[in-house]
Amino acid sequence: MRFLLNFVLVFVTFSVQAQQCYKLVWSDEFTKSGRPDNTKWSYDIGHNNGWGNNELQTYTSLLENAEVVDGKLIIRAWHQNGNWTSARLTSKGKGDFLYGRFEINARLPEGRGTWPAIWVMPTDSEYGNWPGSGEIDIMEHVGYDPAEVHATVHTKAYNHVIGTQVGKQITVPDFSTGFHTYTLEWTPDSIHGFVDNRRYFSFANDHTQNSETWPFDKRFHLIINIAIGGNWGGTKGVDINLHNAVMEIDYVRVYSLTNVPAISGPAESIPGDIITLSLPDDYTVTYHWQLPEGCSFIGPSDKPVVKVKVGTQGGNIQCTIKPSCGDAYVVQHQLRISAQ
User: Which residue stretches of the chain are H helix?
Assistant: First the structure.
């Protein structure tokens, strides 16, 4: 029979943060011409009082407003018979995500009065109506201020209605003639915005457990649209000669965040015991285990599962993990010894 004297073997997991790894989980490469893939996209339809921003367009599901042509999604705002129509595509219910990396390769429209956007909104609104449940704008552009692309977050504490929104802009000179990749990286700790892998915007979780500052722990979905006019896009009016505005999307790709694994093993042991320690087996990863002095491996030390003979001294068991897609990181466990 075993009994504890002064020490027990306790495994407490620590992780050293490193470059995150991502796995593609949802995408649209727009390979099939015609209407957007209805297994991935739905339409917001109607005028709906300007969708809250006094915009001019009516959103439709018409092919002339959203169509896949030659491997690209074409979203087109039209001015016909005195009225604007456009498209607003949403992945709600068909692509809902908690954390990850969102990449959208796009060419933006130009013209005073245009207001294209690529953004994510809460799927379930568990913290209440806007802005309580949050909003993340991956890309916004207003035509009267050409080449300035914006990334912004909105929460109950930080939003444009009360003048506290948090955002940044970056200059993209060929926004309307070239394709650029607009990216959101969203983790439990932070939100980052990129253009062509150049990070220009960051927003950190303050870890106060307050949804008014960080409601970004629930599912969100993608929205892609062109608005015309509105409180921001129409600040300097709409060009009377503007009759057509086009945004082209080459691809949309969403990658999930790969979780840092935890070591599995017994909760306590004594000197001379043989214990098994394990990590998830991933062929894209290399493993390098290190033991406290006096402990020894029984078999290889570069596998996800190792057998160890426990020594007489405590210390840290650690494994350095090198994924194929990022920097190496370390998972540690503190080893303390019990007696027989």
Answer: 48-49, 230-233
Contact 140, 132 (CB under 8 A): no
From 67, 103, 140, 185, active-site residue: 140
Question: Residue 248 in contact with residue 107, Cβ under 8 Å?
Answer: yes
340: tokens are 């027989």
pLDDT tens sequence across 64-85: 999 999 999 999 999 999 999 9
Residue 324 has a pLDDT of 73
pLDDT digits (tens, 9 = 90+) for 115-171: 999 999 999 999 999 999 999 999 999 999 999 999 999 999 999 999 999 999 999
Domains and CATH numbers, the chain: 14-18+260-335 (2.60.40.10), 22-257 (2.60.120.200)
Looking at residue 187, its amino acid is T
Q: Is 140 an active-site residue?
A: yes
Please give the model's pTM, rounded to 2 decimal places.
0.75
Count of C-beta atoms within a 10 Å radius of residue 53: 14
Which residue among the candidates 135, 148, 248, 268 is catalytic per the annotation?
135
Distance spanning both ends of the chain, measured CA to CA: 7
**Left if phi > 0, otherwise alpha if psi is -120 to 50, otherwise beta: which for 20?**
beta
DSSP 218-235: S-EEEEEEEEEBHHHHTT
Report the relative pairing of strands 14-15 and 329-335 from DSSP bridges. Answer: antiparallel
